[in-house]
Amino acid sequence: MRRVSPAFTNSIRYANAKEIRIELIYEPTQCCLRIKDNGQGFEANHTILNRGFGLLGITERAERIGAQLSIESRLGQGTETIVSVHREAST
Fold first, then answer.
1. CATH number of the domain to which 63 belongs
2. In whole angstroms, what is the distance from residue 83 CA to residue 91 CA?
3. Domain range spanning residue 12?
C-alpha cells in the first residue's frame, strides 16, 4: 500500500472527491492498478506532472519498476491514474 498511497492521498487531500475507486487487476502477463476519483480534477500537463501533488514521485516510482503510467484528468471531472507493469508468465 505504501507505493499506492501518493495517488490515493492526492484524491483525498486535493481532489475533494466524494468517491474513489481502486482496482487491482492481476493477470499472468501484467498487473494493473487503477485509481479513479470524481474530484475536481486538474489540467494534466508536463509542468504539473513534474512539480505538483506528489506526481513526480509517482512518475519516478513507476519508472523504477519499469511500469507504464497514465494520468488523465479534466477540470471538474476527476482524475484516473493507471499503473501497468508487465510480468513474465510463470511456467
1. 3.30.565.10
2. 25
3. 5-86
